Amino acid sequence: MPKQVDHHQRREEIARALWQVVEQRGVSHLSLREVAKEAGISHGALQHYFTSREAMLSFAMDLAYEQKSLRISRGLQELGDLPHPRDVLRLMLVEMLPLHADARAASRMSAAYVLEALHNEKIHAQARDGIAQGRLVVEQLVRQAIADGYISPDRDPVAETNLLLALTGFTTLIELDVVGPQDALTAVDQYLDRLFAGNDHGTGSEGGRSR
Amino acid sequence: MPKQVDHHQRREEIARALWQVVEQRGVSHLSLREVAKEAGISHGALQHYFTSREAMLSFAMDLAYEQKSLRISRGLQELGDLPHPRDVLRLMLVEMLPLHADARAASRMSAAYVLEALHNEKIHAQARDGIAQGRLVVEQLVRQAIADGYISPDRDPVAETNLLLALTGFTTLIELDVVGPQDALTAVDQYLDRLFAGNDHGTGSEGGRSR
């Protein structure tokens, strides 16, 4: 049992070394050799934990998703017992953007992973399933918000969900300094204000809410 | 003079070989050696045209932007003399998504390039300038559409421009088969319908337009 824990812990350490390589040197440097160097272990020792670049990348991505879910869960706890659906969606959206160090690392990992997915069926399936699962959570939130009168019933829940996910396009704009983090947040807030406008429950984050 | 033309033409051929490598094998295979192989020339001959991976990538990206601009120009011509601003924005947005082979190749190139930009100041500056220039064109369109009464004056032109650009986030969703191309277009159209709703000129692509 302790040996298995050690094994898992060591895999996590290696995944973090992989993040470091992607974050600091870029995906073009991502190889078992570079990660072994960053983790301070031998290439042979690394292969004891991951037999391929693919397996390593896949585990690192799972870990990134896991950590993101954890940050969202913590954020949800802070929102209290009956959070406004606008606040829940905002929390999820903002966590997907590279606005703090952990989210930026995850978003760079994710970009590297998506590029890899285009040429690797297994990673493609893993990435698709992960994002589709997240998409479903957002769609359920949107449908519930429509049913509860927070969002106008005129809105198409599928299209609205897809648009919310597409807003992760801010990632590139922020990373390239085309749009500043504050401007991105302003745009996201205006977007959410309109999504939640013209309904029974008021117009969004400030005032007008009823529970 | 003919020699210079040849030189430029050969550089274009090499850039296309680079696209092929990125498109078919992925950015992790992007090296001078792989591109030389794809272009059917020797590594030494390639270095006559590009002295570094960075120079090659930078040229290939310029070429991709150029071709995208050309496709948009052609699309604009088809829209006639006084195109509706909604149609112009739709054309630009759709061309940014991987909905046909050329746009997909450009978008994969672009994704590889953005990842490279995170760890290369020169490429970062080039990518930022290219996207910022495109952003400015969109902002001018949005401001003009507000001035001409196509978009409500309540809308913030900066945030609206940023949101339009952020919708390129559909790229990942389409590439990973999380959102189908048709569903992405439906969402973009609903988005544009709302952006152009509630103004002097009617509600978007169908009917209600005045010139």
From TrEMBL, chains A, B:
Domain HTH tetR-type: 8-68
PROSITE patterns given in the database record: HTH_TETR_2
Species for this entry: Streptomyces albospinus
InterPro entries registered for this protein in UniProt: BetI_C, Homeodomain-like_sf, HTH-type_TetR-like_transc_reg, HTH_TetR, Tet_transcr_reg_TetR-rel_C_sf
Protein name: HTH-type transcriptional regulator PksA
Origin: domain of life: Bacteria
Record key words, sorted: DNA-binding, Repressor, Transcription, Transcription regulation
DNA-binding region residue numbers: 31-50
